[in-house]
């Protein structure tokens, strides 16, 4: 039976609770499982997250190889290759859930909070950081009494929501969402606790909330 977005999210959140509690069960692959995977893949979720080496998507959701399709860029900023990879997951593999995975202490978001006239960043980094700036601006406007640390923490959640919104610029993804073939949920992973918390969802409920 096809996994629903709710079942997929439930499974990931249960895995994250095991991970945060230091009770992981999955992530290893036996020779038998490897040969079973030769038949093909049917992942339950697409994880689109930041490249930060401290965030290990398969570990934090306690899943096995074959269960999640992972795409990562700094600050989970989208480009055409990212969108195409997610469209592949949604349209070709029929994956029912997209999780946008931000994290606390994100260097990309922190860089986007630096003054715009600071020393220019090398290569294509400037453009990447510019893509995150709207989230930082929105965070700054939310409350004038915030410390810089609070602005960045708020911007991290808003940047996840920005990535979620930008996914809908893809007509393929937008159509799949409209047809309820896929749901998008945003989470922030806390480096300190190991737990994820939801910062936005597009028509998906966990069975716990329902
Ligand atoms: Zn990051």
Quickly list its features.
210 residues, alpha/beta, Beta-carbonic Anhydrase, Chain A, 5-stranded mixed β-sheet, 5 strands, 44% helix, globular, binds zinc ion
| CATH topology (fold) name | Beta-carbonic Anhydrase, Chain A
Q: Total domains, how many?
A: 1
CATH architecture: 3-Layer(aba) Sandwich
Strand count:
5
SSE topology string: HHEHEHEHHHHEE
Count of runs of 4 or more consecutive helical residues: 8
The shape, in one word, is globular
Rounded radius of gyration (Å):
17 Å
Instruction: Average the pLDDT over all residues and give the rounded result.
Output: 93
The strands making up the biggest β-sheet line up spatially as 2-1-3-4-5
Distance between the termini: 21 Å
CATH class: Alpha Beta
Per CATH, the superfamily is Carbonic anhydrase
**Contiguous uncertain segments of 5+ residues:** none
User: Which range does the strand content fall in?
Assistant: 5-15%
Q: What structural class do the secondary elements suggest? A: alpha/beta
Roughly how much helix do the residues carry, as a percent range? 40-55%
Ligand set: zinc ion
């Amino acid at each position: 039976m096809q996994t629903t977005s709710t079942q997929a999210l439930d499974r990931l959140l249960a895995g994250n609770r095991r991970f945060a509690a230091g009770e992981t069960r999955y992530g290893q692959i036996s020779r038998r499982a490897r040969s079973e995977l030769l038949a093909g893949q049917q992942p339950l979720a697409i994880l689109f997250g930041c490249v930060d080496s401290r965030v290990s998507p398969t570990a934090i959701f306690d899943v096995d190889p074959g269960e999640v399709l992972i795409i990562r860029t700094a600050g989970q900023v989208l480009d055409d290759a990212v969108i195409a990879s997610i469209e592949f997951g949604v349209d070709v593999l029929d994956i029912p859930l997209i999780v946008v995975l931000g994290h606390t202490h994100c260097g990309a978001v922190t860089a986007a909070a630096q003054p715009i006239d600071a020393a220019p960043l090398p290569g294509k980094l400037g453009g990447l950081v510019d893509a995150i700036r709207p989230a930082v601006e929105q965070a700054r406007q939310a409350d004038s009494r915030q410390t810089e640390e609070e602005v960045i923490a708020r911007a991290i959640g808003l940047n996840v929501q920005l990535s979620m919104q930008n996914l809908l610029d893809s007509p393929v993804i937008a159509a799949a969402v409209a047809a309820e073939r896929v749901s998008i949920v945003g989470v922030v992973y806390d480096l300190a606790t190991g737990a994820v918390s939801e910062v936005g969802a597009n028509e998906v409920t966990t069975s716990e909330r329902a």
